[in-house]
Amino acid sequence: MDTWGIDGEAYIAAVRAGAIDPHGYSAAELQAQLDDCEREWSERLALVPDEQLDDLIAGRIELPTLPEEPEHPNAARLRADEQFVRRMQALEAQSARIEGERRALMAEHVQRVVELPGDAGPAVKELATMAAVELRLTQGGVMGRMTDAWNIVTELPAAHEAAESGRITIAHLRIIEQQTRALRLDARVDDEEKGRVIDELVELAERVSTSRLRAGAKQLIDEVLTEPLQQRHDAARAKRRVEVFDAGDGMADLVLHGPALEIHAAHDRLTQAARKKAKDDPRTYDQFRADALLELMLAGLIPDDHHGVSPITAHVAITIPATELLHGDHQEPALHDLRFPAVLDGKVLVDRDTARRIAGDTATWERLFTDPTTGVPVTADTYRPLEAQRRWLRARDGRCRGPGCAKPVYRTDLDHTTDFAKGGTTSIGNLGHLCRADHGLKHDTRWRLEQLPGGVLRWTSPIGQVIDDRVEPAGPVFKDVAPRALDSGASREPIPF
Ligand SMILES: [Zn+2]
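Above are the sequence and the zinc ion SMILES. Below is the predicted complex in structure-token form.
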């Protein structure tokens, strides 16, 4: 503990700026150690009586040690919890830095051989093979990593730097890389706009969990892509297919690639059937769903024509901006050009044609209409109209309200924030949706939950971390040109059905 010189603060500043501590400690950990050390010194100094201070300074007596008090088991547990979290954080940042260094190295050398005269492909391959034989890895694998690294460093420099400095994890970087592929390929979006979106994603990645980053990225990117979701969806829909993969042990996988809405509906229908299985049926939901689907496939009738989604009786929530339904050929051009995807279960963007078909359909779809200027739900429409409170809360929450959780609201249950048994009321300000795992987090662990005004759920961990879970707008939010188009009055019309 006496190793701290007067340069402790300067050393920590250097680590914060990117220097690697030989013991692998992060700046926050070093700061905590320094604070502990200083606190201990001042406590030990306070034990020295005034008349002995001269002896101490002259080195004739030692600084007394603090009396050892046995640590209470709860305090010891909290200290160990805290240490674990800080260590995880430090190691994650450290591995992000090392990964960043490797990425920068690979990108630099790909760039070096790309700039050589001649064909770049064989040159990169030659270099990758040299590294691969040394590492006993496959040439294709190393080459893939090198080109990925080069792509990230050249096309996502802000994300690369954030990961390299440990501000975002490698998992966050990977999501940014995946989700921006279409954007980076879109030649009609200029570089400045691409840079702005990437900056926004990095900023988001510094604040939210990976699942929320993925959902946020989808919306953010859809707004700037020049090819509307409808066109992309139509092209992607043309590639729908069913494939079989052998899986060994006498098993195989049947993979259906199709429109998200129908696939979710189909899965939900299987789940609903599983919920109704007999009490003595020992099958798990997974097993029941698999059996039911096979039964349908093998014994059901294949229709002569495509019926669309109308025969589906599954229960899927879809968020539709109110203006979405106003689109029609007679609409003014300004409104017609706007692209507002509907959102399935708060996650998957749904193209306009499907959204309108669903909106016009009968009662089994939960249709949630959002205010186009704020994205906040304005009204819900469901087959259980008497449950006004439930509908409002579902609209407000849209997903599980657990820390970092993004499970859709249909995988959750309503929870009294303050338990009913402890005097909590059944009111909007005391209810929130939690998935089973987060319900357990609240009831079976030392995490605490309270609800603040505005539907903010405040989670407090045993070691004092505070996570304020705020609800995102449920629908896309108007920007730029949109408010003017709306002021024309078109959106003030009642929803047309
Ligand atoms: Zn959850």
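The pocket of zinc ion is lined by residues 400, 402, 405, 407, 434-435, 437-438 (CB under 6 Å).
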